[in-house]
Amino acid sequence: MTTHRIGLVVPSSNVTVETEVPALLGRHPGARFSFHSSRMRMHKVSPEELRAMNAQRERCIGELSDAGVDAVLYACLVALMAQGPGEHRRTEAAVTEQLAQAGQRPAVLSSAGALVEALAALGARRIALVTPYLRPLAEQVVSYLESEGLEVLDWAALEVGDNAEVGCIPGERVMAAARGLDLSGADALVISACVQMPSLDLIGPAEAEFGIPVLSAATAGAFTLLRHLGLPTALPGAGRLLAAGQAVAR
Fold this sequence. Notes:
Function: Catalyzes cis-trans isomerization of the C2-C3 double bond in maleate to yield fumarate.
Distance between the termini: 22 Å
Active site: 76, 194
Oligomer: single chain
CATH architecture of the largest domain: 3-Layer(aba) Sandwich
Number of strands: 8
Strand order of the largest sheet: 2-1-3-4
Largest sheet: 4 strands, parallel
GO molecular function: isomerase activity
CATH class of the largest domain: Alpha Beta
Catalytic activity: maleate = fumarate
Strand content: 15-25%
Number of domains: 2
Family: Belongs to the maleate isomerase family.
Order of helices and strands: EHEHHEHHEHEHEHHEHEH
């Protein structure tokens, strides 16, 4: 069974993505994965710290290139969305170019781009979402998604500015925020628009309660990694997004 090396670029204060993405991909019946991280310093989820964090990207990609990874996931959704429309494409292109200069051509993805791609795969155009961010950053995430042709019907900001605290937000608080949304007409619910806000235990119960597809930055990231590696995307217990199991040629 082939082992695929996954490179993760993560904020230094993130403790969730390296738990949830491996947990998801560990359910895959036909492949094994190893995970290799490089960290960008960031504590407060603020525009200033996000810009400073993004400036560390080249160092992180250089470190991951030494590991010869098969795929790279730039795992901070808001860091890219806060820079304006289309930023995930610009960042993915810059990372691809840097790795090409090192003679490597892994799949290059970002959490921001993965969410957009996963929603498209679901055929979801009208969505609702829960974010942990302070309201101004949450508004930028909403605007970014709308610039991608999505209609955000309703959304919630939990107003947590410390990234370490985001990783400790109780699931019941997230579910309570989701219950407060108007989901009438929504094609899907993004229950965690942040790779740091825990989501895995919420996907199944939320789909059962709300009756629509439910995804998160983590499940979108896992789906898109599998898709770009040419692997079947079926993972048990991860919601409708990961229930189909068809490998998609890229």
